[in-house]
Amino acid sequence: MNSNFAGAGLALASCLYGAAAYGQVAGVGQAQVVIDPDASAAGINPTGRPIVLTAPVMDGTAYLGDATLTLDPNGQASFSAVRLIALLEPRIAAPLTAKLRARLSERGRLDRADLQGVGIGIRYDPQALQIMLDIAASSRASRSVQLGDDSRRGPVTYTAPAGLSAYLNIRGSLDWVQQGADEGLAAPVTFLDGAVRAGGVVLEGEANWQVGAVGPDFQRRGTRLVYDDRHSLVRWTAGDLQTLSRGFQSAPEIAGLSVSRFYSLLDPQTIIRPRGSRSFQLERRSTVEVRVNDQLVRRLELDPGTFDLRDFPFTQGANDVRLTITDDAGRTQSFDFDIFLDQSQLAAGLSEFGLYAGTRAPLGRRGPIYSDDLAFSGFYRRGLNDRLTLGANAQADGNGWMGGVETVVATPIGSFGGFASASHVNGVGSGWASILTFQRTISRASDRADALSFSLETRSRNFAPIGTGLPSNPYSYIAGVSYNSAISDAVYAGLDARYSKGRDAEPDVGSIRATGGWRISPDLSFTGDLSWERDGRGNRIAAFLSLTLRLDRASSLRGDYDSRSNRTRLTYQTYHGTGTGAYNFSADIERSDLGAGANANAIYYTNRAELGLSHFGTFERDLGGSTGQRTSLRFGTALAVADGSFSVGRPIQDAFAIVRAHPSLRDADILVDATGKTSAANTGALGTAVQPSLSSYSERNLQVTAPDAPLGANLGEGSFRLLPPYRGGYRLTVGSDYMVSVVGRLLGANGEPIALVAGSAIEEAHPEREPVPLFTNSTGRFGATGLAPGRWRITLTDADKTRFDLVIPKGAEATIAVGELRPGAR
C-alpha cells in the first residue's frame, strides 16, 4: 500500500469500529487462530461489540497476505486457522506444517501455545492494524539464494519496454593550445553514437564530426542491425560487424552477417562457469554481502532461516569468497572460503560461439571502405563437463587462412589451458603457434592462499592470422612464471620471471621482478617492485616505489618514484558522489630526466550532461621555463525518446529509461534512484528525466520518489522492476489517477441501510485491475481508497449480491463524499 494512503485507510477503518460481527465475513463457526490479549491490547476496542477488520499478516517486514480479523471487546483477536497455515506453508519446514494441521484437526482451533510449539510467535499490533509473526530461524524452510541466475527463480513480472525508442549521444571536445605546435583553438570534434529500437530490432551506429579539420568533416565509423533471440540466446547482426576473436585470431573489419552467443552480453545473470555452493543459517533478519576477490557482487536482505548460496560469479585464478553478515541488531560475522577456477571454463552443456562472414571493410577517412574480398572468422567453445572445455576457431580471406583448437582442463593440482593454431599466408608460407598455461592456488592454514602460474608460448617464423601482410615473429618462444603470496593481512609479495628466445639477429630478452605491498595503517599503504632486465642494450636494475595516503573516504594523495628515468610524481585525486551533482578531480605534477609536467582534470555530472575540463603543461627539467600548455573542454549529453516522450540527459551507455510525472502530481519534481542528497536524475523544468545507466538483460529496480508531491498523491509502488533489452528504452510514468478515496452510504431497494456487509468495487473500463475492497458499518456507511475518475460497479457479498453504480467525476482528488447510493438498475 502506498504510504500516502495509510492514514486514509486508518481513518476509514476507524469509521467501521462500531461494526458488529457477522458470519459471512468473520468466518464464525470456522476453525480459528485465537490471539489472547496482552498489555498492548488494552483499550483497542472500547465499543463493547466485536469489530471485523481486514488485516495484513506480516513476517517481519515481509507481507504474506490479508486475513479477516475479529476483535472482541476484551482485546482478543481471532481469524481463520486454515488461512494462517496457507500463508505459513511456503515459509516453514514441512513437518511443522503437518504438526499444525494435526493440532487443528484435534482441537478445532489454534492458539499462541500451539504456534510457540513449532517456533512461531504471533501478536496483533493495534497501532499498525497488522498481525505480526515471529518465526524462529530453525523453523523456517531451507531456501536457495541464486546469485546471478535470477531467471530460474520462477515467473517474474517486469515493466514492458517502449515499443519504439531511440537515443543519440553527443560528445565533444575543444582544445586550446596556449603554447606549442598548432597554437590557438583547434577545430572542435564531436563523437556521435546512437540507436533506434523497434519491434525487437536495433539499428545502431557511430560517427565522428569535425568541422574545419583537414580532410572530410564527417566520418561514419559503422552501422548495423542487431536482433537478439532471447529464447535461444543468439545474437544476429547485419552490417558493419564488431568482430571478436579467440586465441591467436585477429579481429578483421568485416561487413556482412554474424551470429554469436556470449553469455556476458545476452544473459549476464547466468553463471557460465562451474558453480560453487555453500550453506549458512541466519538467526535474525540480516544483510548479507557477498564479495569475490574483495569485490562486492551482491547485497541481500534475508529473513531468518537456512540458505544455500549458489552461483558465485567466479573470476580467473584464486577466488577469495567472503560472506559478511550483519543482523538487525548490528552484529557482524564473516565466512571465508577459496575456490580455484579458470575464467575460460564453461559449465557442462553450455556453449559460446561467434561466426562472422562478409567482405573486408577497413575504415577509411569517410567511413568503411567496402571491398570485394570475402572474409570469414569464427570460433566455437563448449563445456563437455565441469572440468573440460574444448573449442575450435578458424578464419580466412583471399590472402590466407588460420585454424586452431583450444582446451581448458581443471585438475586437483590446478588448471591447464592451451591453444594450438596453424596458418597459411599466400606468398609467405605456412606456420604454427601454441600456448600452454597452468594456474594453481595453494591454500594455507592461515585462511590465505598463494597463487602459482606458468605460461609457454611458441611461434614459427611464418605464422600469421588473416589480415597480416608480412609476419613478424622475432621470438621462437616466450616463457613466464609467477608466484604471489599474501604473507599477512597487511603484507603481500610476489616474484615473476620472463624469458624470450630471440630468432635470427633478435637478442634474447629476460627479466626477474619482485613485488610487494604493505598496509602500514588503515590510511597509509606502500607498494613497490625491484627488477632486473637483460636485452640487447645490456643488463640493468630498476625500482618503482609508491606511497598512498588516504585523506578521507573520497580523497587520496600518492607519491611515486621510478628509477628508469629518475621520475618522481605526486598525485591528488578525489571523488564525490554519484549521479546529479557528482564530481571528480585529479591533479599531478612530475619531474624526470626528460623534463617536467603538470596535469589537472575535473569532471562534473549535471542532470542533463557531463562536463569536463583538463589542462596539461610541460616544463623544462628544472621547472625554469614552460615548453607547452594545452587546455581541453569536454562535454557529453544524450537526446532520448521512448514511445513519444522526449528528454535530455547524460550519455546513455546501453539501455535507458525516461521518467515523467503523472498530471496528478502537479509538476512535482521526480527523483530517480535517489541516495541521500543526490539522485541519478530528476525531472526538473523539462518534466522528464533520463536514467542513462541501465544494462541490457540485467534485472534492475528503478526507484522513484517525489518529496514535494501533493498530499494524498499516489506514487504507485515507488519502483519499477526492469529487465532492459539491448539498447532498449522505457517510458515510465510516476503517479496515476488511482488516488481518490470515497465515503458514502449504501441503501437497499427499500431505502433501509445495508449494514455489516463486505463488498468490492471494480472499474468498468478496466475490469482486469484488482478489485478495491470495502465494508459497511451498522448504519450502511462505507469507505474505499485507491479509486480513479470513471464508472465503478460495487458488488456486495450478501445473499442477493447487491450491485451499485458509482461515478467519480473527472478531476476528483483526495477524499470525496458520494452520498447515498441505491442498487443499480442492471
TrEMBL record:
- Which Gene3D superfamilies does the UniProt entry name for this protein? 2.60.40.3110, Outer membrane usher protein FimD, plug domain
- A GO molecular-function descriptor: fimbrial usher porin activity
The family database entries (InterPro entries) matched by this protein are listed as:
Fimb_usher (IPR000015), FimD_plug_dom (IPR042186)
Indicate what this protein is called per its UniProt record: Fimbrial biogenesis outer membrane usher protein
Question: Can you list the GO cellular component terms from the UniProt entry?
Answer: membrane
* A Gene Ontology biological process term: pilus assembly
